[in-house]
Amino acid sequence: GAVVSQHPSRVICKSGTSVKIECRSLDFQATTMFWYRQFPKQSLMLMATSNEGSKATYEQGVEKDKFLINHASLTLSTLTVTSAHPEDSSFYICSAPRTGLAKNIQYFGAGTRLSVL
Amino acid sequence: DQQVKQNSPSLSVQEGRISILNCDYTNSMFDYFLWYKKYPAEGPTFLISISSIKDKNEDGRFTVFLNKSAKHLSLHIVPSQPGDSAVYFCAASKYNAGNNRKLIWGLGTSLAVNP
C-alpha cells in the first residue's frame, strides 16, 4: 500500500488564487520531505526540501514567496502555490525518505495535477 | 547540465524477452543509484537500487548493473511482461550540504512490452 499520501490529486483553479497541496507520510515519521515538479516530457525537478521544525531549503530558481512550504509535523508537509498563474500548471509530487530501512529510498505520493486557467 | 542521462527516450520489447534500460552519469560523487517506475498521473515507485560499492544487485526479474569506471548503469528486466510497460527513471544520490541527500533524475525511458 501507499506509504506517502498526497492530496488533492487534481486541482483546477482560476489565475490569481492560491492552492494548497498536502503530503503525508503514513505510519512513519519524516523529518524531511521533498517537493518536485514535472513538466510534460521532462524529468522530475526538485523544487525544495521541506524540513520539520525549520525553514524549507529551496533549489536555485524556485521562488520562496511563490511556493510556500510548511512542514507542520513529522508526518505532514504542505506546498502552497500562491497567486497561481497558467505557467504554474504542472504535475507536483512529494516524496519522503523512510529511514530505518534502506535509508536512501524515497517514497513518492501519487502527485497533484495543477491546472491554472 | 544533465548529470544523469537516459539517452533512449523509448524502448519497445517483445513479451518474454529481456529489456535493457541504460543510464549514464557524470558526477563521480554519486554513491547510490536507484531505478523508479512511473505510470501516467502517478508518482514514481521505487524499483531497485545499488550502492557504488557494488557492481550488481538482483531482485527477482530485475537486475541493476553498475560500471563505475564508465559511469554507467543499466537495468535488466527478464522476462519482460506487458505490466512492465511504464516510464523508468534512473536517479543518482549524493550527500548534500547539511548532510541531506537529494536525488538527481534522468529524463526517463518509456518502455513498451508488447504481448
What does this molecule look like?
The complex is a heterodimer of chains A (about 120) and B (about 120). Helix content of chain A is about 0%, strand content about 50%. With about 120 residues, chain A is mainly beta. Chain B is mostly beta strands and about 120 residues long. Chain B has strands spanning about 5, 10-15, 20-25, 30-40, 45-50, 55-60, 60-65, 70-75, 85-95, 100-105, 110-115. The radius of gyration of chain B is 14 Å and the shape is globular. The interface of A and B includes residues 32 and 49 of A.
Beta-strand residue percentage of chain A: over 45%
Low-confidence stretches of chain A: none
The largest sheet of chain B is:
6 strands, mixed
How many distinct beta strands of chain A?
11
Structural class by sheet pairing and helices of chain A: mainly beta
Question: Roughly how much helix do the residues of chain B carry, as a percent range?
Answer: under 10%
Number of helices of chain B: 0
Oligomer: heterodimer
What sort of overall outline of chain A do the alpha carbons produce when their principal axes are compared? globular
Using only C-alpha atoms, the radius of gyration of chain A works out to 13 Å
* Average of per-residue pLDDT values of chain A: 90
N-to-C SSE string of chain A, H for helix and E for strand: EEEEEEEEEEE
* Beta-strand share of residues of chain B: over 45%
The structural class of chain B is: mainly beta
Give the C-alpha Rg of chain B: 14 Å
Helix content of chain A: under 10%
Q: DSSP helix count of chain A?
A: 0
Gap between N and C termini of chain A? 34 Å
Major β-sheet profile of chain A: 7 strands, mixed
Number of strands of chain B: 11
Biggest interface in this structure?
A-B, 26 and 21 residues
